[in-house]
Specification:
Blueprint lengths: L8 H30 L6 E5 L6 H17 L3 E5 L6 H8 L7 E6 H9 L7 H4 E17 L7 H10 L5 E5 L4 H13 L4 E5 L2 H9 L5 E5 H9 L3 E6 L25 E9 L4 H15 L2 H10 L2 E2 L4 H22 L5
Parallel strand pairs: 1-2, 1-3, 5-6, 5-7
Antiparallel strand pairs: 3-9, 4-7, 4-8, 4-9, 4-10
Helix pairs in contact: 2-10, 2-11, 4-12
Length: 336
Amino acid sequence: MIHPRTQRPGLLRRTLLRAAVSALVLTSAAPAIVHAQEDYPSREITLVLPFGPGGIADITARVVAEALGRKLGKQIVIMNQPGAAGSVAARAALNAPADGYTLALLSNGTAISVPLFENLQFDPLKDFVPVSSLAYFDFVFVTKEGGAFKTLADVLAAAKAKPGALNVGTINVGSSQNLAAELFKSTAGVDFTIIPYKATPDLLVALLGGELDVIIDSQTALKAALEQGQATALASSGPTRSRLLPDLATAQEQGVEGFDVTSWNAIFAPTGTPQLIVEKLNAALTEVLAEPAIQERFADLGVEARSSTPQEIGDRLAADIEKWGAVIEKAGIPKQ
């Protein structure tokens, strides 16, 4: 290797010239990059959802997208990409430039998918940066109206008296509801039989027909049955009472210490998205989700509109991955 001091004068001049040009290009580009970030957004934004149209996550995302679009002055387009435990939606977002114009909806289901699926094809902690939470919702323990159980204490007493005899229904194995039932068993120190069904209507038919003693699902999914007097809510699953069900005591209040299940969804951006853009999106979402009209619309759907800092929702995702991984392992649920 030739030491710089021994290089030929012409070669040294060309080397220095190239270095100067490169520095000039970088210096000239920097203001343009900052300007583009400050002018964000200058065109429509796509929000990719790992769910099909019509569900609660889709509806709430569309409500937020419309309001956020008005706030930012550009349309937010929803792209539904269900399938493969969220991998289809994640890959669609990650294949786009990390410039803030393609965002992804991640959820409690994402946290479950990490330990549950063998080949998830993306790592939410490495591939995405958090922006803000959108919505939170608890699950409710529900029994048949006029049935044998009047309180959660009745359910616990029956489960302890005859281990395994009680039938508790949830939707699919590995769902948030299903894992909530598994966590409840271990936290409460009781044993019962968890029976998975394909969808909430199947759960309700089984409950009303006497095949199930208790079901665990979202307030949203069970709202009609509760309002029509077909079913009775025994407890909510969160650490504190839901703002939407202030008269319903939590499982913790009723003696099941440490039981805490709250589902959520949130907006994330591909890793590499400029921090200035993340901050701008977070500030806009914080304002939008605090709007009374948005709060009321979400409450009608059975969910709580609530923003967060990027750090808060990022920490929640990491904590839930660890939490549900432990539940899956203890329950012996095989990787899919």
